[in-house]
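ZP: hey, is the magnesium ion complex queued? I don't see it on the tracker
AM: it wasn't, my bad. submitting now with these inputs:
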Amino acid sequence: MDNKKHIAILGSTGSIGTQALEVIEANTDLFVVEVLSANSNSDLLIKQALKFNPNAVVIVDETKYQEVFDALSSQDIKVYAGKDALAQVVEMEDIDMVLTALVGYSGLKPTISAIKAKKNIALANKETLVVAGALITGLAKKYSVRIYPVDSEHSAIFQCLVGEFHNPVEKIYLTASGGPFRGWTKDRLLSVTKKQALKHPNWDMGAKITIDSASLMNKGLEVIEAKWLFGLKSEQIDVIVHPQSIIHSIVQFTDGSMKAQMGLPDMKLPIQYALAYPQRIVSDFPRFDFMDYPSLTFEKADADTFKNLALAYKAMNKGGNMACILNAANEVVVDAFLKDKIGFLEMSDVIADCMEKSTFVANPTYDDFVSSDEESRVLANALI
Ligand code: NDP
Ligand code: MG
């Protein structure tokens, strides 16, 4: 085998997946694509496979299998279909690292399987840590697997911690842009449309995370993600609104010193850092110019109007399967909002209701997460 890093990308046709492929394309001396996967976007998956010549591709939607198989039949590329194939393909011997860039709960099973196969993880799919943080971090420890954050805030924290060895963290500040509705009142939010919610001021991302950003659920999920990635307590994690999205997050140490990581908002940087760690590779990404941003500003997050942030803290503090319940309900309401079946503010009400009514399990196993996810989805759908 060569000394390049062999990467499997789960969710290669999405926003993170396509940007990861741009990073790989610019650094073919360092990286090789081993696996590509899509849910149903067969056209793009085929194009990517023809360009990057991976060992295998997975199309989750089984009705698209034949089309992908036929298009790649003259290539030496294995083609698999179905959900279970994702969890199997990550075990392939040649893979060094799995980039989890799929959306939501669907990332849980393949991530577990990748960790058990001792593959390091570049984690974009934050929902996996939200749903089952104790299980995932426990498995990573057991199998000596590293989890490198791709989320920009967590990459920032990770970068600030490099070289600090065992110096304890006093607290961290996750920055939030505040989304398209920053400063809006509840009254104004009542009639918000999906078109408005899908317009993020600073980042161009997939639909689900864009709605999560508008509702502040994304920041709530990130608080939980940070707890598990960095082993922090609830009171050590704070959120600060920073509309310019230049400071990506901040670590405060026990001597009061604060380290921040900053740069223009561009996901390629944290993706590249996770793939290449501990190396920093030369890039031609646009550079930050102080004169373009003469003032960087900060505000308190409005957790009264945007209830999701408070709900996420509540779920984290409760522990057990509560964050799994919150995540499942959120996936259902975001999907319903995107289909115009539910109002913007109603999303938080349904999530809060599911958290009240779902069965609480203090020490959940994998099977408990599966049934808990299912129960919360049924409840949320009934409430819409
Ligand atoms: P996208 O919606 O753009 O892409 C999702 C990818 O996952 C696509 O390849 C999609 O396939 C695939 N996919 C979707 N659903 C399933 C499923 N049920 N099973 C298997 N594959 C599936 O999402 P993003 O790239 O925006 O986000 C990916 C993850 O990264 C999320 O967890 C998000 O929170 C996180 N993240 C994203 C950031 C961003 O800038 N986009 C920033 C920080 C974190 P298909 O194309 O066929 O639908
Ligand atoms: Mg983020």
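AM: back. The mean pLDDT is 97.
ZP: great, adding it to the tracker
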